């Protein structure tokens, strides 16, 4: 009987195959290979749709699998990286998704089984390759509408279920969700995988592989690796690892970080080094093997393979390295509650207390309710941001109001938060009494968050069903002390309900106890009703009991409920909370919903006031409530807490130039109006403010992003703040236009034919739009003729070409040739992961008689565009650019293959400005 992956991975390191795309490129396939006769009717180009080769050229895919198996691979991936309806829509091939996936498994299965029969002691396995799709559920495609999503969680789940169900039916041995750049996408894929396994009754190992986007080690959607681990903790994961992004040397520190904390087997399949300036991989198989050997000898991995640039020759180097390899031992499972937004929050006992910001609750804040009702989301976001600045480690969000569509508002607001990194970095508490609102909220967030709440009030069956569902979305859950008989108000009722719920969750559902948060109900005291006097004591006692008797579980509560009787007297309320928390935390209270800006500390309460409040909280005397009421009247008004409006932040004391740059980099738009009015007196023209302090701020953002000190959501937020600043200046800029002052122009953007990646292009669109450029986005897979035609029709001022994969470089040259043939002289902006200044100088610039500018990141686009649009600066900029290109050509061995005379090209370009 064939041994399983689970058995073998305990004995030796398993070898995964290398890159499918790199191997396919070696066959020099043409359009007819991808299309064949069968798909002659399908519009658009099919070349580049590698998954389609399962149907049109199965011999090629089979040959690639065989080469990897000959090289020593234990695991081969199906050729299905983009075989979802979402990705196939770019090729008009959605109807063939099931057939493509079935064919892919059949090809891989036959070859793998053939080799297993040859060498039964070395069984081969077929791994289902599940890519991230070309969409992101965590970011908006429209700078003007950050709440918008190009695809919903539910749509992604449906697409993934179709693919994974088919792959399981075909007979794969494991599922690999790979090249994860957006954790919400990954959570949808995990959900779909679990659903598909249940539907097909086929349970296979679930493998995950992340790609980090920068040297800071975050995913493209901004999460740290630790935060990602928390986000997927709910799933039954076999292995987790890293692929793509970097070569083995650059990937190693992130792999070490992952291996240190992940309680799973570890995989790694890096690129063949870093691509050179022409987008090619120069690292030899032996060079890469030496770097991979460090992984093996240091016990970092259980599965090793290759990604971009690797072929069977690279994989063939691995078997000989295994003799000295040390098996990685998975980390122990965490014994604390793990939560995450963009960053990890581990709730440890030594943290003392985790405060949950309470101000984004329409039921508890009239101001927040009004802002949501009036759709003033920017102001509402400021409330959330302020709470984080004041120290809230988790934020509570509740939209339950009779006049609101709670589901719609929760979805909108959580989508908005995703583009606010200073808010999104912390975990959220999705708070609602409506089940559909809780689920809607979970479908918007990529981290591991808390749902508040479920209870036993509708019986055990409903409770178990809801708990199981919430776990499938990756949430920690608040369990309220309610049962079929109502709210628990006494110590005995509180602990009885909590113990019953704990046993159901842990014993029946095998819940991780760390994901259970009990709320034993903080109820109002000093109400004048004798039965209420012991409520605080009962809560505190119940907290201690839960921590001692229900191991792993946390305890939380809505602290403001305690002082409801004293609403209107902020000082007394905050003092009561301070006293209550002091005693509850000593008994083990882990977290609570509080105002993080509270200014009353336990130690600061005058002794006479403290005694009076403790008499009430601890129910030490029968007349305690009456005494506190009298004291409250005496203190009212004299000791009110300092209002938020009176507080002053230090950065507001900086010079106005620095204030604007600070606001830009932090994404704070609250003071832009007044700061811009002030700075207008220091600059002769409004456009100078954009080209001066604002663009300086944007340049700093670009540098920090490149250094890994800022990440994508922060950059997008910065761009949006820039747009707000420009909109304030726009009326004055319009007047300057009439005086001949250069302003923004019209930009055409396109991902070139053969490439379906558009994330980078979308970021460029955001940044340019925020600088008042009109954007014409042609999307992905755009043929050269379409670009030329639209450029002429729209009379654009510049054209931006984007590409992520190596074949895009050749297509960019083709676009430049077609623009030249059309007699156009529109500046060309080149960007994308595989592009470089050297390739632009050698291949693109010489074939086009107009400025061709390579841009290494999105932050440069507006600066370069401003120079190109300003006729006074344009000639000098282009002369410097062309001189730099000539220097690059002279240093490069590629200069002899350029078909156009560099001297003629240089003269032609300069003549444009003579």
**Record field, number of beta strands:** 25
Can you count the helices? Answer: 35
**Mean of the pLDDT scores?**
90
Strand content: 5-15%
Ends apart, CA distance between termini: 80 Å
Within CATH, the superfamily of the largest domain carries the name Homocysteine-binding-like domain
Major sheet: 8 strands, parallel
Overview of the structural elements:
With 914 residues, the chain is α/β, with parallel strands linked by helices. The chain has five domains: 5-324, Homocysteine-binding-like domain (TIM Barrel, Alpha-Beta Barrel); 348-448, TIM Barrel, CATH 3.20.20.20; 450-642, Dihydropteroate synthase-like (TIM Barrel, Alpha-Beta Barrel), CATH 3.20.20.20; 648-741, Methyltransferase, Methionine Synthase (B12-binding Domains), Chain A, domain 1 (Orthogonal Bundle), CATH 1.10.1240; 744-914, Rossmann fold (3-Layer(aba) Sandwich), CATH 3.40.50. The protein has 35 helices and 25 strands. The strands form five sheets. It has an eight-stranded parallel sheet with strand order 1-8-7-6-5-4-3-2. The chain has an eight-stranded parallel sheet with strand order 19-18-15-14-13-12-11-20, with helices on one face. β5, α10 and β6 (239-247) form a beta-alpha-beta unit. α20 runs parallel beside α21 (535-549) and α28 (712-738) runs parallel beside α29 (759-769). The longest helix is centred in the C-terminal third of the chain and has 27 residues, at 712-738. The protein is globular.
């Amino acid at each position: 009987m064939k041994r399983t992956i689970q058995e073998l991975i305990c004995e030796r390191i398993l070898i995964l195959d290398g890159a499918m795309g790199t191997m396919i490129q070696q066959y020099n396939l043409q359009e007819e290979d991808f299309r064949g006769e069968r798909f002659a009717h399908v519009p658009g180009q099919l070349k580049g749709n590698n998954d389609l080769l399962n149907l049109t050229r199965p011999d090629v895919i089979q040959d690639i699998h065989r080469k990897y198996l000959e090289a020593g691979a234990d695991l081969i991936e199906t050729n299905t990286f983009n075989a979802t309806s979402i990705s196939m829509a770019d090729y008009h091939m959605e109807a063939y998704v099931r057939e493509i996936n079935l064919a892919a498994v059949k090809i891989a299965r036959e070859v793998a089984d053939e080799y297993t029969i040859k060498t039964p002691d070395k069984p081969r396995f077929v791994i289902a390759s599940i890519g991230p799709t070309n969409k992101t559920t965590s970011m908006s495609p429209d700078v003007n509408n950050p709440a918008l999503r190009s695809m919903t969680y539910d749509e992604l789940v449906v697409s993934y279920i179709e693919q994974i169900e088919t792959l399981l039916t075909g007979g794969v041995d494991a599922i690999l969700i790979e090249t994860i750049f957006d954790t919400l996408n990954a959570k949808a894929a995990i959900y779909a995988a679990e659903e598909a396994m249940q539907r097909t009754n086929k349970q296979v190992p679930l493998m995950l592989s992340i790609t980090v986007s920068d040297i800071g080690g975050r995913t493209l959607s901004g999460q740290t690796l630790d935060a990602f681990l928390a986000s997927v903790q709910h799933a039954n994961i076999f292995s987790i690892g890293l692929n793509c992004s970097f070569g083995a040397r650059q990937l190693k520190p992130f792999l070490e970080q992952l291996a240190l904390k992940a309680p799973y087997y570890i995989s790694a399949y890096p690129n063949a080094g870093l691509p050179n300036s022409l987008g090619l991989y120069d690292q030899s198989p032996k060079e890469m093997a030496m770097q991979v050997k460090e992984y093996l000898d240091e016990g970092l991995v259980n599965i090793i393979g290759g990604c971009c640039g690797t072929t069977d020759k690279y994989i063939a180097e691995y078997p000989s390295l295994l003799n000295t390899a040390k098996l990685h031992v998975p980390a122990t499972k965490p014994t604390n509650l793990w939560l995450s937004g963009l960053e990890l929050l581990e709730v440890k006992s030594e943290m003392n207390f985790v405060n949950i910001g309470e101000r984004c609750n329409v039921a508890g804040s009239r101001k927040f309710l009004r802002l949501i009702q009036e759709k003033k989301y920017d102001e509402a976001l400021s409330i959330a941001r302020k709470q984080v600045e004041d120290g809230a480690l988790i934020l509570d969000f509740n939209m339950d109001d009779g006049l609101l569509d709670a589901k719609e508002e929760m979805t909108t607001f959580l989508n908005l938060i995703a583009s606010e990194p200073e808010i999104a970095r912390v975990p959220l508490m999705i708070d609602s009494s409506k089940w559909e609102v809780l689920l809607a909220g979970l479908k918007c967030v990529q981290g591991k968050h808390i749902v508040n709440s479920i209870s036993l009030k509708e019986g055990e069956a409903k409770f178990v069903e809801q708990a199981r569902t919430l776990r499938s979305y990756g949430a920690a859950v608040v369990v309220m002390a309610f049962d079929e008989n109502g709210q628990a108000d006494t110590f005995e009722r509180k602990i009885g309900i909590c113990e019953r719920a704990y046993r159901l969750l842990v014993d029946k559902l095998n819940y991780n106890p760390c994901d259970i948060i009990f709320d034993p109900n903080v109820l109002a005291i000093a109400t004048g009703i004798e039965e209420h006097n012991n409520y605080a004591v009962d809560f505190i006692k119940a907290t201690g009991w839960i921590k001692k008797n229900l191991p792993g579980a946390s305890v939380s509560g809505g602290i403001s409920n305690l002082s409801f009787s004293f609403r209107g007297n902020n000082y007394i309320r905050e003092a009561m909370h301070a006293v209550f928390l002091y005693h509850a935390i000593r008994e083990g209270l882990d977290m609570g919903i509080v105002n993080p800006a509270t200014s009353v500390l336990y130690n600061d309460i005058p002794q006479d006031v403290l005694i009076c409040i403790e008499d009430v909280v601890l129910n030490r005397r029968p007349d305690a409530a009456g005494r506190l009421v009298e004291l409250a009247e005496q203190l009212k008004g004299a000791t009110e807490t300092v209002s938020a409006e009176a507080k002053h932040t230090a950065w507001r004391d900086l010079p106005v130039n620095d204030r604007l740059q600070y606001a830009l980099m932090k994404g704070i738009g609250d003071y832009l109006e007044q700061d811009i009015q002030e700075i207008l007196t220091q600059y002769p023209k409004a456009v100078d403010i954009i080209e001066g302090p604002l663009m300086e701020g944007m340049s700093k953002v670009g540098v920090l992003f490149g250094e890994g000190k800022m990440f994508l959501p922060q950059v997008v937020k910065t761009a949006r703040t820039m747009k707000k600043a420009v909109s304030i200046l726009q009326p004055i800029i319009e007047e300057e236009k009439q005086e001949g002052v250069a302003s923004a122009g019209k930009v055409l953007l396109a991902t070139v034919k053969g490439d379906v990646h558009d994330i980078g292009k979308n970021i460029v669109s955001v940044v340019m739009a925020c600088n008042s450029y009109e954007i014409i986005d042609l999307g992905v897979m755009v043929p050269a003729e379409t670009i030329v035609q639209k450029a002429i029709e729209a009379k654009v001022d510049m054209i931006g070409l984007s590409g992520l994969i190596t074949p895009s470089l050749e297509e960019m040259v083709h676009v430049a040739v077609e623009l030249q043939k059309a007699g156009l002289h529109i500046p060309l902006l080149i960007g994308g992961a595989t592009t470089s200044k050297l390739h632009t100088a050698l291949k693109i610039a010489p074939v086009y008689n107009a400025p061709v500018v390579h841009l290494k990141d999105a932050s440069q686009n507006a600066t370069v565009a401003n120079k190109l649009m300003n006729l006074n600066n344009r000639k000098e900029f282009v002369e410097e650019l062309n001189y730099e290109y000539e220097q690059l050509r002279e240093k490069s061995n590629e200069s002899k293959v350029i078909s156009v005379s560099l001297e003629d090209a240089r003269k032609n370009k300069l003549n444009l400005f003579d």
